Amino acid sequence: MTILDITTALCLTAGCFLGITGGFGIYRLPDFYTRLHASSVTDSACAFLILFGLMLQSGFTLATVKLCFIFFFLVLSSTTATHALAKTARSRGLEPLLGREDKR
Amino acid sequence: MYAAASLAILVVMGLALIRAILGPTAFDRLLSVNMFGTKTVLLISVIGFLTNRPDFLDIALVYALVNFLSTIAVLRYFEQHKSAPTDQKESQR
Amino acid sequence: MNWVGHYNYWGAIFLMMSGFYVVISRGNLIKKLIGLNIFSTSVFLLYITMGKIKGATAPILTEASQLTASPQIYSNPLPHVLILTAIVVGVATTAVGLALTVRINERYGTIEEDEIRAKDDSL
Amino acid sequence: METTIDIVLLTFLCITAIAIIYIRKLFCGIMLLGIFSLLSACLFVTMDAVDVAFTEAAVGTGISTILLLGAMGQTNAHEKRPPYQPLIALLVVLVTGSVLVYGTMDLPVFGTPDAPIHLHVAPRYIQQSPIEVGPPNMVTSVLASYRGFDTLGETAVIFTAGIALVALLGSSQKKRPPCASPPQPATLHDHLILRIVGKMFIPLILLFALYVQFHGDYGPGGGFQAGVIFASGIILYSLIFGLNTAMRVVSPKALRLLGSLGVLLFGGVGLLCIALGGNFLDYNTLAARPVDGQHLGIFLIELGVGTTVFAIMVMMFYAFSLRGRNTS
């Protein structure tokens, strides 16, 4: 077990923890906008930590370059998609749940 | 290590799948499909390392690029069909 | 216990039957096409299941296997070839089916099977 | 470990399939079908079928979702409840399913290396193809060389599907005279960030498609996947910047030409092989050394396949979008 392995294990653990948190968030949170927040946690930090952990293991190979690209694309595309999604939802009149006003 | 990571990702996928089935609005489903896509990218990368063939990251790369497309297509569909139902009433009930 | 090893076939058969159920029990033509898609995916799964060998790796030569004495086991590449082309052909044929649905909708104003039949009978 | 992943993914697939049966909104069905395809691609990766997973990745979430949405936009988004009870259907399905499960009892256990399928031609492909044909990716050598005739047929089927689609959907333009002020097609024009990121993404997608096309001998990939990915790039362009702009970049006429050129290239290579004294699609005759000939032949036919698949996929997208614009 070298230092590199331990770092990878730490990164993967943290990434998986964030992922599961986000997963529970998307399952439990009450409305679309809060779920959006939960899913963006898994899309950015979780993805970064897991891919970084894998990068440490692959060393200076083509695999590392590909992982870098995957991370780059993932960050760009998922953030943009989330943004566009929120914008469209807002323009279609989906109101965020504020307070407990929904209880009639 | 990789095995545990892939199991954790599978758990996240399961939760996203539940949200996609429950809905209630169309945007919720779209969000979970998008999240499912990113989790697929991660799962495929981790499986590549688990089976000692990390040269198969190309598949994850395709998903990272193409996953974008379906979200955009659905948004475009909503822009085009202003009256398309998004089931917002159900969520506010 | 020999039967436990068949779970993958059973999963594929379950999916096949759910696709089949959608096709024969639902009247909406687009829904039928979705069912056909599930059915075809299950067939792909069945083929790939047959090609898999436990402990083998993907049928792409590794550099390591040429150096070491022990030969690397590879999964069967033949089902992969058949299914690879079938996926692209599948999407092309689905598109033709969708085009037919669109034309039917233009002519009949509906894509529900029984309504189409009622309109046909009334002519 | 892989068994666990396999079983979990299979369970997810079954849950998704049941959900698709029960949910009556077609939109949800299409979204769940996207998830279904993602799951099946993961399953293909765990079962070593990387090339298949690659194709499913390129096709499943992008193009098939877009085509289904395009068709749904022109029809009805909600499925009506059928007036009859689907009990008979359920019965038929249960009987068929149990017969099939009974049939699997005679099949070899999942993953055994001495199953009949692994004993006949597969050893030849695995042991001889790197020597006889060359590419390290055995799937490419089987696809393009050993079973080249089969692939020619598949390419022709795709081409025919494209022609059929244009015949079905392409005729409306002439019947409908262009109205005085053509309705401005809805684009994602006010999504500024989307447009900028899209502008960054599209060249990368096209570049990656070329990588897949020409790297297919060494890693997963090949003409089918590359064609679909390239088409996805163009479709993304047209989604973000509007159909008219995209049609100015890649005109439908050019697509028709490219689609037929691809099939012609494939068939032409086959005929060239006959002219040089070999059999149809026998690439050994194309160069002085058989392996070089194989390499050249595979390169050319993969190019043909890629061109055809690209052209037909974009053509299908254009046909659906044009139809949607004219009717709505």
Structural class of chain B: mainly alpha
Whole-number average pLDDT of chain B? 84
SSE string of chain B = HHHH
State the helix count of chain A.
3
Number of helices of chain B: 4
* Total domain units of chain A: 1
Distance between the termini of chain B: 44 Å
Largest sheet composition of chain B: none
C-alpha Rg of chain A (nearest Å): 17 Å
Rounded to an integer in angstroms, the radius of gyration calculated over CA atoms of chain B is 16 Å
Helix content of chain A: over 70%
How many extended strands of chain A?
0
Shape of chain B: elongated
Alpha-beta classification of chain A: mainly alpha
Poorly predicted tracts of residues of chain B? none
Instruction: Quote the beta fraction of chain A.
Output: under 5%
Helicity level of chain B, as a percent range? Answer: over 70%
Distance from N terminus to C terminus of chain A (CA atoms, Å) equals 59 Å
Oligomer: heterotetramer
Descriptive report:
- The complex is a heterotetramer of chains A (104), B (93), C (123) and D (328).
- Chain A is mostly helical and 104 residues long.
- Chain A is 80% helix and 0% strand.
- Chain A has one domain (3-91).
- In chain A, helix 1 (3-28) packs antiparallel against helix 2 and helix 2 runs antiparallel to helix 3.
- The N and C termini of chain A lie far apart (59 Å).
- Chain B is mainly α and 93 residues long.
- Chain B has one domain (2-83).
- In chain B, 70% of the residues are buried.
- Chain C has a single domain, classed as Helix Hairpins.
- Chain C is an all-alpha fold and 123 residues long.
- In chain C, helix 1 (7-25) runs antiparallel to helix 2 (29-51) and helix 2 packs antiparallel against helix 4 (77-108).
- Chain D has 2 domains: 1-111, Four Helix Bundle (Hemerythrin (Met), subunit A) (Up-down Bundle); 138-171 and 188-328, no CATH class.
- Chain D has 13 helices and no strands.
- Chain D has helices at 2-22, 26-46, 50-74, 87-104, 122-132, 138-146, 148-169, 172-175, 192-215, 223-241, 243-249, 252-275, 290-327.
- In chain D, helix 3 runs parallel beside helix 13 (290-327) and helix 10 crosses helix 11.
- At the C-D interface, helix 1, helix 2 and helix 4 of C face helix 1, helix 2, helix 3, helix 4 and helix 5 of D.
Helix/strand layout:
The complex is a heterotetramer of chains A (104), B (93), C (123) and D (328).
Chain A: H1 3-28, H2 32-58, H3 62-91
Helix pairs in contact in A: 1-2, 2-3
Chain B: H1 2-22, H2 26-50, H3 57-80, H4 88-92
Helix pairs in contact in B: 1-2, 2-3
Chain C: H1 7-25, H2 29-51, H3 63-67, H4 77-108, H5 113-122
Helix pairs in contact in C: 1-2, 2-4
